[in-house]
Structure formats: structure tokens, C-alpha cells
Amino acid sequence: MELSKIMRFNSDVAVNWLVRGIIAFTRLFAYRTRVKLFGFIASYVVAPLFGFIKKAVRNLQLVHPEMSASEARKIAHEVAANFGKNMIENYSKHDVAAALKPENIGGAGYDQMMAAIAEGRPVMLVSGHIGNYEAMRIALYTLGYQSACLFRPASNPHFDEHYTQNYGYLTGPAFPQSRKGFLGFTRHLREGGIATMLFDVRATQYEDVDFFGIPAPTSDVPAKIAMKTGALFVPCFAHRGPDGMTHHIEFETPIEHRASYEMMAEMSARLEA
To answer: What is the DSSP string of 82-125?
Structure first.
């Protein structure tokens, strides 16, 4: 084995056990303490160490040139904290489910979604990296429904083993972003299932969609899958409450099937709002 491969292997193993160790350590604490602790570690240790705060500040000021550096840093730290909270919450799904209040699950498209589910029509929930996007699947679990998801496997194969298992735990089947994964995801919808997908990922091989006034290369695959399977196309967002712990799940009015990039442009506008 080449030296570089040996070093990469050792690095991947070390990172995996470090993350596992942090998760195991925080699980010794009560749920609220665990979530807040992981948020703090992500915001003030991990994110600054790997340059994520500086990158987030640059991106924020690109979209909002009038924003001061101090305000951008504050938001960047909040985003990093949310990422950390998401991670440990997704390893604590039973706790998240227990904390979700029925009155915090709704939205203008909720009734249409429930009617489609009752009819056996496929339902495709599309969201972005906002709040805890896995919370919408946990919300469906509390309502008695399983939902599939499409996810990007972790680059670290040792970490990916439990990362992948966790996506499918409790809430429903998880399909990796691969040809086989897309086929499984589409089949799940064709059979009348509920499936979730995040769309706000830079996809350079696709056309641009306006996002906060900036051209953003965006895949139209979510719209095409919905039209191909006849699925109800529902924008769904999980908003983290002011206390940093509660979740408000909003199922918005479905987007009508039409030209795929028109659908994605509306989806982008919904995320902006």
C-alpha cells in the first residue's frame, strides 16, 4: 500500500473514532445539554478550525454586500451551531420525536399532503439546508408514516458506515446518491411512498437558477422525478425555534407540475422566503 494511502486510511480511522467518541461522550448528558454542547463544539471549535466561519462570512457578504463583518460572523457561528445540533439530533431521533409538538407540525400544504397520502399518491418533500432538515422525516414518523431520503455518502468510508445506517434508522429507507440509489428512490415513489430530497446543492453540470440574486447552478432532477412518478411536489422546511431546541415543520402549498426549471425556480424562491 502506498504511503499516501496508508496516511489517508489512518486519518479516516482517526476522524471516525474521534467523532464516535464525541457522540458517545455527549450521550452521557441529558438531551438538551447534549444538543447545546454539540452546537457549541461545532460553532466555536470545529468550524473556526477548518475555516468554515471565514467561508460563510464571504458567502454572506457576497449575497448581502451591506452586511457588516461582525453581523456575518454572528450568523456564521449560528449556522455552524445549527449544523452541530443537527448532527447529534440525528443520532438522537427518539428524543427529537418525543420533543416534537403536534401543534408545531402543519403549514398551508399540510392538508393536501395528507389527502395525497390517504389516496396512495406519491409525495415528494423537497427542502434545503435550513434548520434540521431530517426533522421533517421525524415529524412524519410521529404521524405514523415512513419516508425515504436521498443522501450523499460521507467521503470517509469508516464514518460512512454508521452515518448511512443512521439515515435509515427509525424514519424509513435511505438511498445513496448513485445510479442504484436513484432507481431505488424513484421506485419507492412509484409505489406510492413518501420521499424527501434536498435541492440546494451546487450542481455545475446543470442550468442556473436565481438564488438571492446570484446565479446558482441547480439540478432539476427533483422536479423531473416528481413528474415522472406523478408525485405531489411539496416544499417543506424545518425551522429551529428561538430556544435553539424546538422544531417547527412547515409543509407548504405544493408546486404544480410544469417545466422542470420553472418548478425549481419557484422552489428556490420558497427557500429564500
So the answer is: HHHHHHHHTT-HHHHHHH--GGGEE-TTHHHHHHHHHHT--EEE
